[in-house]
Specification:
Helix content is 40%, strand content 13%. By secondary structure, the protein is of the alpha/beta class. Bound molecules: pyridoxal-5'-phosphate. Pyridoxal-5'-phosphate (PLP) binds next to helix 5.
Length: 400
């Protein structure tokens, strides 16, 4: 059942609440999903979590851990076996030697992002963030008085980031650049040249690159994934975040991690002890199994999502008023409506009149109000049925 409780909380002017909470908007996705819950026969293109079952080895390892009494706290940095497994996995994947001291296990990528941004944001400090971007970054920066400098990207350009524009935006007050590739909400994968140019200039200018790579295995068309870890000469100016949530379908198991220099990890470990103490212990054992046995699962995931992506691209192309493109990763597309059209209004009408739930563009930034986020983390059948409603609805609109 939808309630208005969350909206009351976010918008309350009651003096008990820290005014910093006013930087946290009512998430557009929550607004839409709450509304959808009161309607019948809604098809969702809104959900940002995979529909695949978790690999069975992960379930077995988690349950075995519970039976074996692995229900206490782990070390604050994480379960030593998981830290070792992550270090080995990244050394092999990117030829980047890491030691367990370069890693902190967190409660999902969300906690890692929270730690990275709130430990560095302070009044007057600037953070360069692409617009649109995942909705957590800007509020967490602003909560602590930091300033968000947006770099707009566009559907006509596949939402690619111009590295020179990022470099030109760096000034004396810039503390960090936030990257997210493959991106939520656009599905864009930045090519190696873009990542290298940004990482190199950032290191030279003493600016951090905070890179959210939670979709790092969801990259299609045989494309390589240029992780920040494979583009930096050392870890002195980078913090890289990932998790099992999206790529291993383990969102509810809440295991993520942050990789950085040993000095940064020491600082963040202390902060982590004052936020969540440690991540969930049985799920960390599940994570060890995911890294050891997950290769087959990842191959199947990539194949399935490529199929869904291709279908979505074709359907968006056939839809009047939507400008799409070919996203190369994650499971989202962020097509544009005509300039000046309010995506919030269109999303609302699409929900009420056609019973398809999408997420309005303004959830992800100020420069993309004329967009909708479409997720393809649902079956091809569901995607097809959604467009059987969207296309005739769009045909009837006059956006001129
Ligand atoms: C880009 C991005 N980063 C982080 C997260 C949160 O990940 P987790 O569930 O591991 O906290 C999400 C979830 O939607 C996401 O899209």
């Amino acid at each position: 059942m939808a309630t208005s409780l969350d909206i009351d909380f976010y918008e309350s002017q009651d003096p008990i609440w820290n005014p910093a909470l006013l930087t946290i908007p009512v998430p557009g996705i929550r607004r839409m999903v709450n509304l959808a819950a009161n309607l019948e026969d809604v098809i969702h293109l809104s959900i940002g979590q995979p529909d695949m079952p978790v690999p069975p080895e992960v379930i077995d390892a988690t349950v075995e851990a519970l039976h074996a009494g692995q229900t206490g706290y782990t070390m604050d940095a994480g379960l030593p076996e998981l830290l070792e497994a992550l270090a080995e996995y990244y050394a092999e994947r990117y030829s980047r030697p890491l030691s367990p001291e370069n890693i902190l296990v967190t409660t999902g990528a969300t906690e890692a992002i929270y730690l990275a941004l709130t430990a560095t944001s302070a009044p007057g400090r600037e953070f360069i963030v692409p617009d649109p971007s995942f909705m957590l970054y800007a509020p967490l920066i602003r909560m602590n008085g930091g300033i968000v400098k947006s770099i707009p990207t566009r559907a006509e350009n596949d939402h690619q980031l111009d590295p020179q524009e990022v470099i030109d935006a760096i000034d004396i007050n810039t503390y960090a650049i936030v990257l997210n590739s493959p991106s939520n909400p656009t599905g864009t994968v930045y090519p190696r040249e873009t990542v290298e140019a940004i990482v190199e200039e950032a290191a030279y200018r003493n600016v951090y690159v905070i890179s959210d790579e939670v979709y790092d295995h969801l990259v299609y068309d045989g494309r390589e994934f240029p992780s920040v870890l494979s583009c930096c000469s050392d870890l002195d100016h980078v913090m890289v975040v990932s998790s099992f949530s999206k790529t291993f379908s383990m969102a509810g198991m809440r295991i993520g991690w942050l990789m950085a220099s040993q000095g940064a990890i020491r600082k963040l470990r202390r902060y982590h002890m004052f936020t969540t103490t440690v991540a969930n212990t049985p799920s960390q054992w599940g994570g060890v199994a995911a890294l050891r046995h997950g290769a087959r699962f990842l191959d199947a995931l990539e194949l399935e999502y490529t199929k869904r992506r291709d279908l979505l691209v074709e359907l968006v192309e056939r839809t009047p008023h939507l400008t799409g493109y070919r996203p190369q990763g994650a499971f989202y597309m962020f097509p544009a409506l005509p300039e000046g059209i309010d995506g919030g209004n269109v999303a609302l009408r699409l929900l009420k009149e056609a019973r398809v739930c999408t997420v309005p563009g303004d959830t992800f930034g100020d420069h993309c109000r004329n967009a909708l986020r479409l997720s393809y983390s649902m079956s091809t059948d569901q995607i097809e049925r959604a467009f059987e409603r969207i296309i005739p609805w769009m045909e009837k609109q006059d956006f001129s």
